[in-house]
């Protein structure tokens, strides 16, 4: 998410806005690649352990709440939509609508978090923790790491919201918004893989 | 800075402004480079002292100065600090930061504030690692499970510190890739780029693509210790070998994060002091990328005796041999550049030539270790220790010293004493070989690594090795004094003391804040030696 750092015109830098736009976008794509590799380690672990313990996965995934999981999937997909609508708004020069869509996206992220909180609490209530079994360790580390990314994304979007309200963006300049949007879509995309891998096997 | 107009600021030498705060808040890539250089050098000294202590313990059989646990702590500290605080950020963060914008004709990197943040993150990671020393880890720098899960020492803080350092590494790599893509001066085409830039580019790709994997490995190790998630614990159905796979998936490419920038330095130094165009420019350039690519597919050669399948081991052995090809391409092209050159044995060149000689030994012994039949015997012996140090000291650190002596006038605006530099080089070169060559022999005789003690038949070679470490230490000490003395008493450096054609030498020493008064238009590559007046 640090990739969205705006190029400051430090000590009289003359950075061409086109170069800046391309640089930030390129930087974010590289950062997204690193995120995929980070989760790639977990997906590799998942593959190995699922091949090793197919019965454990088939049996224990039933403990997960499919309804809440599906709801959260819908929430995140919707949040990607609001994010994309936000970017379109500012491209058409409507900062107020951008602010509205950013707020909606953040609230949807929050809803995802609240939902996850109830899911985790239910697990703890049933004495299911990381370490209960390899499957649940995978469940908690994968969704937990993803949750951290949702929080990071929300922090990023909140920064964008503040900047929007301060009037920093227009149809001439919206690079950080677009790049933050890329990051948010990544967070969404990872969940799209986590949901079937953890909730919908069998 | 507030007192100057923008036009004036551009021409002020970057070293001009004084005060710690002006450094710690500067987004000038050259200042960030110097901060990295000083920080990594500090850790180099600390880890070097621990190495001297280790060698002192091994001077004689039996206990010499430290007990077995302290010995384990010392080699863990030595390895972890050398790898994660010195040699991985090493040339890339220090010289890469200084040289990339200057060499491609840019005013700074693509994301100057992100660059400064990378440095702060580096400091934070270093701080966490130092705090972990209150109960220092004894696992070795590789943190193999299951011992790293069970030891009572502070593995969590140490690995968390390394995790934090990973962010610094990723963000630096990302910044460099974007910079090289987007900020090249007009006319600076890919095939006119200095080879140091190609090397930095390949390194940056590795930093970006490999580091996330060590990040997740270390996070899982921490989760293993905190929550007992069981991924690496056989008692819970986990697999300790999985940790080794994760660890080496990063740590083998990391070896190339360490060595490729040094190869870039050699490609810059050799033509300048041979007064000849570099031979095989494209071959050297693309071999950096080839090394980076292949390095992702060889990690399991660290694990031939860990209990892998023979089929997998055979495949990894074959892939490991492939690395020798692009590496040899570089060595042959450097020697071809030297051929019939008018060679000037100044101190940077002495270090560069040492690199070629020592790295070749390090590289070829790597082929021995990549061969399955030989590795079964040599694994975890001093042969591996010697091989690794021939690559890391004989390669990377020789490249680092070459860079230090070559770009010193540009960075500091001062000259060091060349005669003293040559004496220091002689001590370093002799000391290094006396220290590490006997270890090849010890390894073939079967002396295992990471033991605080050894049977008497290994005594004389160990004694020789320890004496070598003192000669090496003296050499580095003399070098450090010479370079520090140059800062205060050295003559003022001319703009281009070694008559290089590269862009960084076409600006004043030290360069002004914005590097170039006007962005240069590049019309030729930088290696046209012996043709023009150069």
In words, what does this structure look like?
The complex is a heterodimer of chains A (202) and B (534). Chain A is mainly α and 202 residues long. Chain A has a single domain (39-199), classed as Cytochrome c oxidase, subunit III, four-helix bundle (Four Helix Bundle (Hemerythrin (Met), subunit A), Up-down Bundle), CATH 1.20.120.80. Chain A contains 6 helices and no strands. Chain A has helices at residues 17-52, 54-60, 66-91, 95-125, 134-165, 175-199. In chain A, helix 1 runs antiparallel to helix 5 (134-165), helix 3 packs antiparallel against helix 4 (95-125) and helix 5 runs antiparallel to helix 6. Chain A is elongated and about 55 Å long. The mean pLDDT of chain B is 95. In chain B, helix 9 (195-227) packs parallel to helix 11, helix 13 runs antiparallel to helix 15 and helix 15 (382-412) packs antiparallel against helix 16. Chain B has one domain (6-506): Cytochrome c oxidase-like, subunit I domain (Cytochrome C Oxidase, Chain A). Chain B is built from 17 helices and no strands. The two termini of chain B are 38 Å apart. Chain B is mostly helical and 534 residues long. Chain B has helices at 6-11, 20-24, 29-57, 68-87, 90-104, 112-131, 147-150, 155-182, 195-227, 240-274, 281-294, 310-338, 347-370, 372-378, 382-412, 418-444, 459-489. Chain A binds chain B through residues 2-3, 5, 7-8, 10-14, 19, 22-23, 26-27, 30-31, 33-35, 37-42, 44-45, 48-49, 52-53, 129-131, 133-134, 137, 140-141, 145, and chain B through 1, 6, 9-10, 27-28, 107-108, 110-114, 117, 170-171, 174-175, 177-178, 181-183, 208-213, 215-217, 219-220, 223, 227-231, 236-239, 242, 246, 513-514.
């Amino acid at each position: 998410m640090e990739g969205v750092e705006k190029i400051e015109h430090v000590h009289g830098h003359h950075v061409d806005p086109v170069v800046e736009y391309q640089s930030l976008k390129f930087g974010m794509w590289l950062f997204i690649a690193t995120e995929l590799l980070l989760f790639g380690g977990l997906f590799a672990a998942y593959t190995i352990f699922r091949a090793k313990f197919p019965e454990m996965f088939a049996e224990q995934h039933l403990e997960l709440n499919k309804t809440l999981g599906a709801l959260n999937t819908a929430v995140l997909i919707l949040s990607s939509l609001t994010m994309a609508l936000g970017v379109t708004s500012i491209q058409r020069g409507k900062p107020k609508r951008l602010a509205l869509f950013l707020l909606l996206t953040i609230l949807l992220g929050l809803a995802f978090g609240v939902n996850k909180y109830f899911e985790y609490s239910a697990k703890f209530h049933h004495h299911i923790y990381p370490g209960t079994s390899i499957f649940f360790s995978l469940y908690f580390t994968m969704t937990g790491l993803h949750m951290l990314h949702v929080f990071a994304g929300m922090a990023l979007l909140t920064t964008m919201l503040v900047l929007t309200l301060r009037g920093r963006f227009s149809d001439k300049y919206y690079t950080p918004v677009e790049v933050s949007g890329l990051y948010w879509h990544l967070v969404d995309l990872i969940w799209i893989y986590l949901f079937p891998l953890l909730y919908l096997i069998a | 800075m507030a007192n100057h107009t923008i036009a004036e600021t551009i021409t002020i030498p970057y070293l001009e402004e004084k005060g710690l705060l002006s450094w710690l808040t500067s987004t000038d890539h050259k200042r960030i480079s110097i901060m990295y250089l000083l920080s990594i050098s500090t850790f180099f000294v600390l880890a070097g002292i621990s190495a001297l202590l280790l060698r002192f313990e091994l001077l004689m059989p039996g206990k010499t100065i430290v007990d077995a646990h302290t010995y384990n702590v010392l080699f863990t500290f030595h390895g972890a600090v050398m790898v994660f605080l010195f040699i991985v950020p090493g040339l890339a963060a220090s010289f890469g930061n200084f040289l990339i914008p200057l060499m491609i004709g840019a005013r700074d990197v693509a994301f100057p504030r992100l660059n400064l943040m990378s440095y702060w993150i580096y400091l934070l990671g270093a701080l966490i690692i130092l705090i972990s020393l209150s109960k220092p880890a004894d696992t070795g720098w590789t943190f193999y499970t299951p011992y790293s899960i069970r030891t009572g020492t502070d593995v969590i803080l140490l690995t968390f510190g390394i995790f934090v350092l990973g962010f610094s590494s990723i963000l630096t790599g990302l910044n460099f890739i974007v910079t090289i893509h987007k900020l090249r001066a007009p006319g600076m085409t890919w095939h006119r780029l200095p080879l140091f830039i190609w090397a930095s580019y390949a390194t940056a790709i590795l930093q970006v693509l490999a580091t996330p994997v060590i990040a997740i490995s270390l996070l899982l190790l921490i989760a293993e210790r905190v929550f007992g998630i069981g991924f690496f614990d056989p008692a819970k159905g986990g697999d300790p070998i999985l940790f080794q796979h994760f660890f080496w998936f990063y740590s083998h490419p990391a070896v190339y994060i360490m060595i490729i920038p040094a190869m870039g330095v050699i490609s810059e130094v050799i033509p300048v002091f041979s007064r000849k165009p570099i031979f095989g420019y494209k071959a050297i350039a693309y071999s950096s990328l080839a090394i980076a690519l292949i390095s992702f597919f060889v990690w399991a050669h660290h694990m031939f005796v860990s209990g892998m399948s023979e089929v997998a081991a055979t495949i990894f052995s074959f892939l490991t041999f492939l690395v020798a090809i692009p590496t040899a391409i570089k060595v042959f092209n450097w020697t071809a550049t030297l051929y019939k050159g008018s060679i000037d044995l100044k101190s940077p060149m002495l270090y560069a030539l040492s690199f070629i000689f020592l790295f070749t030994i390090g590289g070829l012994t790597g082929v021995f270790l990549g061969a399955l039949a030989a590795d079964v015997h040599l694994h975890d012996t001093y042969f591996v220790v010697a091989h690794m140090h021939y690559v890391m000291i004989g390669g990377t650190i020789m490249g680092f010293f070459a860079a230090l002596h070559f770009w010193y006038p540009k960075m500091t605006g001062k000259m060091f004493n060349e005669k003293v530099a040559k004496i220091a080089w002689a001590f370093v070169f002799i000391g290094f070989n006396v220290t590490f060559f006997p270890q090849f022999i010890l390894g073939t005789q079967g002396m295992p690594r990471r033991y605080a003690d050894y049977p008497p038949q290994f005594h004389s070679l160990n004694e020789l090795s320890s004496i070598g470490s003192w000669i090496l230490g003296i050499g580095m000490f003399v070098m450090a004094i010479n370079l520090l003395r140059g800062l205060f008493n050295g003559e003022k450096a001319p703009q281009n003391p070694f008559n290089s054609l590269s862009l960084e030498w076409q600006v004043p020493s030290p360069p002004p804040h914005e590097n170039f008064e006007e962005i240069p238009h590049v019309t030729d590559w930088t290696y046209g030696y012996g043709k023009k007046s150069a």
